[in-house]
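Lab manual, section 2.4: Encoding a predicted structure.

Procedure: take the sequence of the chain (118 residues), apply the prediction step described in section 2.3, and record the output as structure tokens. A sample record is shown.
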Amino acid sequence: MTPNRGEFRQVAGSWQSEEELTAKAQRLRAELNLEALLVTRSEEGMSLFRADGVLHEPTQAREVFDVSGAGDTVIATLAVMLACGADMPEAVRVANRAAGIVVGKLGTAVVTKEELFN
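Recorded output:
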């Protein structure tokens, strides 16, 4: 499950600290019996919540032109990486990189393999 920050807030309620966010995310993950919950957090990066802990992937600094399709890019990249055998932390790192590339383009855009791995 990959809600953005606003979607997660609508379901779990607001939070005042990272500790409170983690508690809410882990509670939701457990209630829904999810292996993982990835919350995309805009300029704050992404946070992956699993039973064994939390992985925070900070946003890679870049100029943002358009966030259209960034969430879809995260989901698609994550799915492709996992299908290719990557573990979840590596898939999240690459998905974060892909989202950072796509928001630097105008309109809905694609990320090429060359952009992603160079």
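Check your result against the sample. The beta strands are 36-40, 46-50, 53-57.
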